[in-house]
Write a structure and sequence with these properties.
Elements: E1 19-29, E2 35-45, E3 49-54, H1 60-67, E4 75-80, H2 90-96, E5 99-102, H3 114-119, H4 128-133, H5 138-150, H6 166-179, E6 184-188, H7 196-213, E7 216-221, H8 224-230, E8 233-238, E9 241-249, E10 252-255, H9 263-271
Parallel strand pairs: 3-7, 3-8, 5-6, 6-7
Antiparallel strand pairs: 1-2, 1-4, 8-9, 9-10
Bound molecules: adenosine-5'-triphosphate and magnesium ion.
Adenosine-5'-triphosphate (ATP) binds near residues 58 and 60.
Length: about 280
């Protein structure tokens, strides 16, 4: 048998996975009687814009909560960059600040200003004392102002969150997530219920940040058309199961779950799903 001689030893300091998020046969339940998710498999590439679409109650928010470590699956494994998400776990806590999570309710502090809300994203970088006193260093304040400008809210830094329009509130939530300097963005229906122009403006903001920061975005949508326009992959969830996973390659929609389909067939399939 031929022997391979190792002539050179290489030392590696870092292992990098192309698949930043992996879900393996995930089952989860809120009440230990009914399953909110049943056997979900998902594999998300670093830098991807991954969309999750499905009707109300199908399990979309639950999926994001699992990726954020707020929920633990009843069965199956999840890995985010080799780490199992669990907010009680020390190893995950260390990487949590690199995950920008925007909940469906946005989670803004209504009585705080735009600037104060955005600065919350910098809290993990502060010392304990600074963080307790909410004493933000000048460079963080300047960074927050820069991001506020990037999301189109310049001049509204001192406005209280409750005084903002729906679209503006979403921009603040995005700015707060960007302030974290995240590698992953989990956004739960942040453009739903917005007019098409505003929805696209907000999606463009995220697409632009993805190019600049090599951000991986996992976004829950209600609008399949919008999801297809921006995402590399779209997973369709129905009653806790992933029934379809499609991607856009050039002008073609590719079905990654059941073989190639035409756009019309995919769209026809989606039309059968009643929307919220
Ligand atoms: N805190 C909870 N306690 C018990 N059941 C829950 C809880 N949150 C969600 N569920 C249930 O889990 C299932 C999935 O809910 P989830 O919120 O993930 O749906 P969704 O797809 O995000 O819906 P929507 O589009 O309305 O936001 C639903 O049947 C829902 O009733
Ligand atoms: Mg939801």
């Amino acid at each position: 048998m031929k022997q391979i001689q190792m002539t050179k030893t290489t030392s590696f300091s870092l292992i990098n996975t192309k698949k930043i998020i992996q879900l393996n046969d995930i089952w989860t339940s809120y009440d230990s009687k009914n399953f909110a998710l049943e056997g979900i498999n998902m594999s998300i590439d670093r830098g991807a814009n991954y969309a999750i679409v499905g009707q109300s109650g199908s399990g979309k928010s639950t999926l994001l909560k699992l990726m954020n470590g707020m929920m633990i699956p009843s069965k199956g494994t999840i890995k985010i960059d080799y780490v199992t998400p669990n907010i009680k776990d020390k190893k995950f806590k260390k990487m949590m600040h690199t995950i920008g999570y925007i909940p469906q309710s946005l989670g803004l502090i209504k009585n705080s200003t735009v600037l104060e809300n955005v600065l919350i994203g910098a809290l993990p970088r502060l010392s304990t004392i600074q963080s307790m006193l909410k004493k933000f260093p000048e460079n963080e304040v300047q960074e927050a102002k820069k991001i506020i400008k990037q999301v189109g809210l310049e001049g509204k830094e001192d406005r209280k969150a409750y005084m903002l329009s729906g679209g503006e509130k979403r921009r603040v939530a995005i700015a707060r997530a960007f302030m974290q300097k995240p590698t992953i963005l989990l956004a739960d229906e942040i453009v739903s219920e917005l007019d098409h122009v505003t929805a696209r403006e907000i999606m463009d903001l995220i697409a632009d940040a993805q190019k600049r920061l090599n951000l991986t975005a996992i976004m829950v949508h209600h609008d399949m058309q919008l999801a297809l326009e921006y995402a590399n992959r779209v997973a369709v969830i129905k009653e806790g199961q992933k029934i379809l996973e499609i991607g856009v390659e050039g002008d073609t929609i590719v079905d990654f779950q059941t073989g190639d389909m035409t756009t019309d067939q995919i769209m026809e399939m989606y039309k059968d799903e009643p929307k919220k």
